[in-house]
Amino acid sequence: MLNILIVGNGQCGNRILDAINKEAFGGKSKFAKFYSQQKYKSKVETIAINTAINDLKELSFTKAKDRIHIPHLHGVGANRTLGKSVFEDNKSHIMRNIEERGNFDVGFVITSASGGTGSSFTPPLIKEIKEKHDFPVYAVVVLPFREEGTLYLQNAAFCLKEIRDSGVDGIILADNQFLKQIGGNVQSAYNTINDMIARRILFLLDALDSEMMMVTDLGDFKTVMSGGAGLATIGFYEAEKGMNIKTTIQKALSPNGLLFSTDVYKEGSRAMVIIKGDKSYLSIDEISSEVEKLSSSVGHVFKGIIVRKGEAPQVLVVLTLEAAEELENLYSVAVDAIHQEREKKTRIEEQKEIDKAFSKIDGLEPNY
Ligand SMILES: Nc1nc2c(ncn2[C@@H]2O[C@H](COP(=O)(O)OP(=O)(O)OP(=O)(O)O)[C@@H](O)[C@H]2O)c(=O)[nH]1
């Protein structure tokens, strides 16, 4: 049995964590958490951390003991400099809470890259965990919609770089912009995206702690995640009625299944393909031919099969990337955003000249 730590930082991280707990508690009544057992096979500890109390109150499936409020008004308003100093002041309190929960085999820290709290807490938190413990820690990072504004774009660029430098064992990317194809209003898009990420993480946890017909385990996951440029994404697909396993694997690797825009066959570096379902659907020939196709372009592919009586086939692919054109695009837009913010700051500095003009009449009275 694996001991797993999942931390959700900031509003986005909290909500995805809550979606994970929703699934884990059976996904039904919001009171489920009070009386039902989580359906994890592993021992999973979840912690939601936020500066905004209202974001924590909004959670429905995460127990009160699993919420850490770091008092700071109503969040840090996308200001990462402020966020980092609030983390520093509260670091020991956060670390104590994690340490009281025992030892872990693996940890995941979930955050948006672009807000204030999650994006500034995550890099130093991972650094702190890695310095004190020797279990692998993976960041699950949500990229912003590109039209959300200059501050979010610059935050995303700096946050990702800092997470990479934190000692993290790998970054799993999910992109709101890419996933917005799902449609609907923002709130329902968020819920759908959060459920998509939650389902993938739970499938992964299930697979890492399963007795499979053909085994993949935490060791294989670590090897996959250490490949490529330290970046990864996850694909998933559940077969529709009558769909064969070959098509299901292809769908998991296509934009329909992935959390981040990538051409798997061009940008992939290593992969882990996990297939779950009733034995009758799992044609070994079809599985082998799809896995061989993938390994001929990405290199090594680990394969795992979990037989679950009566279940429709589901496929999960963890894919590390050696290149990420979409991320390069994001950084180009972010650099423009950083320049725009800098110019704005210079303009504001110049406006201080206006204050000087006003100050010329300080102490004088009008005469009539
Ligand atoms: N997928 C998804 N993205 C979200 C959700 N909530 C916010 N975001 C995205 O997260 C970014 C904003 O970050 P938040 O997590 O809200 O910010 P925070 O970490 O709480 O930081 P502050 O509010 O600035 O203190 C934006 O890019 C949003 O689009 C959510 O529930 N799901």
From TrEMBL:
Q: Where in the cell is it found?
A: Cytoplasm
- What highest taxon heads this organism's lineage? Archaea
- The answer to keyword Thylakoid applying to this record is no
Q: Which UniProt keywords apply?
A: Cell cycle, Cell division, Cell shape, Cytoplasm, GTP-binding, Nucleotide-binding
Q: List the GO terms this entry assigns under cellular component, sorted alphabetically.
A: cell division site; cytoplasm
Q: Which organism is it from?
A: Methanococcoides seepicolus
Per the record, the similarity remark reads: Belongs to the CetZ family.
- Residue ranges occupied by any Tubulin/FtsZ GTPase domain in the UniProt entry: 3-212
Q: What is this organism's lineage?
A: Archaea, Methanobacteriati, Methanobacteriota, Stenosarchaea group, Methanomicrobia
What is the recorded name of this protein? Tubulin-like protein CetZ
Give yes or no: UniProt keyword Nucleotide-binding.
Answer: yes
